[in-house]
């Protein structure tokens, strides 16, 4: 059983950065130096603690986040490894939303890369404290100062190197710690040889320390004064000043080393322990009332307050079942208790609780605010969900993930499999909250969406292997819509004489275009009882039904107003049905003469790209019928080699963008997108859509 840790003695960090910078190796190195494992693993041998999944072993890359921890003196450091690949960005985002700081890993040769840039922008927008780890200092051409300059020019931020390397490339043997003023060289057992600073480095080290002191002084007015008067700050004063600035995300400590050789890793752990803030108790946290999903509920984080936690990761093991990783926000997570899943509104039973080292469980007796606990075998709890004391029901919207950018339409190869698929996907979306699996009533397709082709392919592969179900994928259809461009009037009389009761209803309507996004407006201006009141709702119903299928290509009609201004009825033969039919037909005629057009969904796209490909990207956007809204460098003085382009592009042109972009830039670009608005299409493009739609209906007809 793990010893108990009070909130102030826990630190939680998430390791983030570009793919292959050595994040998972660093995770192992931290566990190794912290005495939790015997050896630092390698992706080639499938021995990394965090990449325990078969898929991660075979692809030699992380696809999920993983949790581990080390105990350093009286502090517990929770460490979360995250994947660098943009398809799995949801894993990194969720981890960052519950960590107190990020460890940003940067390659000592490649420096800042696309994903570094993207994650930095996210961290900056949330003001999350950061420590930089310049990894692979043992690699040929590794250069500490070059990378430090590279960081400064990219991010226009204050970096405080707290270590400098002892040798670089094949001579890299250790680091000098600028706070302790000692040299640290790792020994094979995970311990370190700590010695005085070598004489030949004295000058460099002194200068570097003066730099840090200057930065640290800014953390506190009293320190600035002392420093400006020419007095040196003590080790404690430097630490205090830095701690304040790091917590405010104004200064970013830099540590360097080699995770493969455990160099710099003890120093990194010390920096985390000393400078990363603990979870703040008595903090007010805003949530929402689960009963109406609107009203704000403010809770106060305290161990004695009612329990509340958010689930930031879910893993479902084929044999051991569901693992829900919870960040405790308030109160205590205790074994053998009943809690409310307020997001889904049902009670869950907590049995034993654990923390983890990769996929190994470690027993814990309770988990206090700020700390992480893992509950197993819960029923339906998933990532995003809030678990809480039912006496203070609250939903905490802490986990916010990016929108999907890539979709497949999916269909079971065998007819009978359809029912099973729904259940399988509900588990998959519980584990992968960036994945959506939904039936689209507008296009009549079931659509699987996520962050990229690789993410979706991994999921389809696992369904094939584990569930023996083959899914056929195709490009999803676009949910086009129809609207009108001018006003028109129309009339329809529905009259039928069949044996006994006849049918009779006549309506006169005016249709007019509405502003985009306004939907539908019904104006009833019947006077003098030309249509009896009780039939008017039937007219509106008929109009709404008629709008489900437009006149151009049977797409839903939007953004129109319809005024019912005249009509006639028959005492005996009129009925709701007659008026509904009259309304449907009148609408059809009205739409036909009101200049109908097709609308297509347009996406807002943000592309991060290496400057060398900027021209290609802009041309490509134009060829996709896109409109560039703005572009710029990702830093203020324009030194950054990475640009960001904002554009709107029709969804129809974005279906394969994640694949094309990768091919176009050799992987040196990523993008995000979300729905923006609907825009009209005409000419050849519209004709093609109508043609395709005809085929679609013909096929459906033939399949009946
Ligand atoms: N030379 C050298 N190689 C390293 C070092 N750290 C990691 N590597 C190697 O870099 C490669 C990628 O390492 P990983 O730890 O899987 O990288 P990652 O950042 O976790 O990658 P993703 O999970 O795909 O984002 C592996 O071959 C490692 O052995 C280091 O300090 N020096
Ligand atoms: Mg990894």
Write the topology of this structure.
Elements (H helix, E strand, L loop, with lengths): L9 E8 L5 H11 L20 H6 L6 E7 L2 E7 L7 H10 L2 E7 L6 H13 L3 E6 L8 H12 L2 E4 L1 E4 L7 E4 L4 E5 L5 E4 L6 H16 L3 H8 L6 H13 L3 E6 L8 H11 L8 E5 L7 E5 L7 E10 L3 E10 L6 E5 L4 E5 L2 E5 L2 E5 L7 E5 L9 E3 L17 E7 L5 H14 L4 E5 L4 E6 L2 H15 L3 E4 L6 E4 L3 E9 L6 E11 L6 E5 L11 H12 L12 E9 L7 H17 L3 E15 L3 H10 L3 E7 L8 E9 L6 H9 L3 E13 L1 H21 L1
Parallel strand pairs: 1-3, 1-4, 4-5, 5-11, 6-11, 29-30
Antiparallel strand pairs: 2-3, 7-8, 8-9, 9-10, 12-13, 14-15, 14-21, 15-20, 16-17, 16-21, 18-19, 18-20, 22-24, 22-25, 23-24, 26-31, 27-28, 28-30, 31-33, 31-34, 32-33
Summary?
It is built from 16 helices and 34 strands. Strand 27 and strand 28 (503-513) form a beta hairpin. Helix 1 (23-33) crosses helix 9 (265-275), helix 6 packs across helix 8 (235-247) and helix 12 (536-547) crosses helix 13 (576-592).
For this entry, give a set of tags.
704 residues; alpha+beta; Rossmann fold; Elongation Factor Tu (Ef-tu), domain 3; Alpha-Beta Plaits; 5 domains; 8-stranded antiparallel sheet; 7-stranded mixed sheet; elongated; binds guanosine-5'-triphosphate; binds magnesium ion
């Amino acid at each position: 059983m793990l010893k108990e840790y009070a909130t102030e003695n826990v630190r939680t960090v998430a390791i983030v950065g570009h793919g292959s910078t050595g994040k998972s190796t660093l995770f192992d190195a931290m566990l190794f130096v912290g005495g939790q494992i015997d050896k630092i693993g390698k992706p080639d041998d499938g021995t990394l603690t965090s990449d325990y999944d078969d898929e991660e072993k075979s692809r030699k890359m992380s696809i999920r986040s993983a949790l581990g921890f080390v105990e350093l003196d009286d502090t517990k450091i929770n460490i979360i490894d995250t994947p660098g690949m943009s398809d799995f960005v949801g894993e990194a985002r969720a981890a960052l939303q519950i960590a107190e700081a990020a460890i940003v890993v940067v390659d000592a040769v490649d420096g800042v890369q696309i994903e570094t840039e993207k994650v930095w922008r996210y961290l900056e927008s949330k003001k999350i404290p950061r420590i930089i780890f310049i990894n692979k200092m043992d690699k040929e051409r590794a250069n500490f100062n070059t990378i430090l300059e590279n960081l400064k020019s990219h991010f226009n931020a204050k970096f405080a190197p707290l270590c400098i390397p002892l040798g670089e490339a094949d001579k890299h043997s250790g680091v000098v710690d600028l706070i302790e003023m000692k040299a640290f060289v790792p020994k094979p057992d995970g311990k370190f040889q700590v010695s005085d600073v070598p004489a030949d480095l004295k000058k460099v080290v002194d200068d570097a320390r003066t730099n840090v002191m200057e930065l640290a002084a800014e953390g506190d007015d009293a320190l600035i004064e002392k420093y400006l008067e020419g007095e040196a700050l003590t080790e404690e004063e430097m630490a205090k000043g830095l701690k304040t600035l790091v917590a405010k995300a104004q200064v970013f400590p830099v540590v360097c080393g080699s995770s493969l050789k455990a160099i710099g890793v003890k120093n990194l752990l010390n920096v985390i322990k000393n400078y990363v803030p603990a979870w703040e108790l008595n903090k007010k946290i805003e949530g929402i009332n689960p009963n109406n999903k609107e009203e704000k509920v403010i809770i106060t984080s305290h161990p004695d307050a009612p329990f509340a936690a958010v689930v930031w990761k879910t893993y479902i093991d084929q044999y051991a079942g569901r693992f829900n990783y919870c960040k405790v926000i308030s109160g205590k997570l205790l074994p053998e208790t009943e809690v409310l899943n307020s997001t889904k509104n049902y009670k869950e039973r907590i049995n034993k609780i654990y923390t983890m080292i990769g996929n190994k469980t470690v027993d814990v007796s309770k988990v206090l605010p700020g700390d992480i606990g893992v509950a197993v075998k819960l029923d339906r709890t998933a990532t995003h969900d809030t678990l809480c004391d039912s006496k203070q029901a609250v939903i905490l919207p802490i986990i916010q993930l990016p929108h999907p950018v890539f979709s497949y339409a999916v269909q079971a190869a065998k007819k009978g499999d359809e029912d099973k698929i729904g259940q399988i996907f509900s588990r998959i979306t519980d584990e992968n909250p960036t994945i959506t699996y939904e039936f689209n009533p507008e296009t009549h397709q079931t659509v699987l969406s996520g962050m990229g082709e690789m993410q979706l392919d991994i999921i389809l592969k696992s369904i094939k292997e584990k569930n023996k179900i083959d899914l056929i994928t195709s490009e999803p259809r676009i949910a086009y819509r129809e609207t009108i461009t001018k006003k028109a009037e129309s009339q329809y009389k529905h009259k039928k004489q069949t044996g006994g009761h006849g049918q009779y209803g006549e309506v006169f309507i005016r249709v007019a275009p509405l502003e985009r996004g306004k939907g539908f407006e019904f104006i009833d201006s019947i006077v003098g009882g030309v249509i009896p009141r009780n039939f008017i709702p039937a007219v509106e119903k008929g109009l709404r039904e008629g709008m489900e299928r437009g006149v151009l290509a049977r797409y839903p009609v939007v953004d129109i107003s319809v005024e019912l201004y005249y009509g006639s009825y028959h005492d005996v033969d009129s009925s709701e049905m007659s008026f509904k039919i009259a309304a449907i037909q009148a609408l059809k005629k009205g739409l036909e003469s009101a200049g109908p057009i097709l609308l297509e969904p347009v996406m807002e796209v943000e592309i991060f790209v290496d400057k060398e490909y900027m021209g290609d990207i802009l041309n490509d956007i134009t060829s996709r019928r896109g409109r560039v809204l703005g572009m710029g460098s990702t830093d203020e003085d324009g030194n950054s080699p990475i640009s960001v382009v904002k554009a709107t592009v029709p969804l129809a042109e974005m279906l394969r963008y994640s694949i094309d972009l990768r091919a176009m830039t050799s992987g040196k670009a990523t993008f995000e997108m979300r729905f923006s608005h609907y825009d009209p299409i005409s000419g050849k493009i519209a004709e093609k859509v109508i043609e395709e739609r005809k085929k679609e209906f013909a096929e459906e007809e033939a399949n009946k």
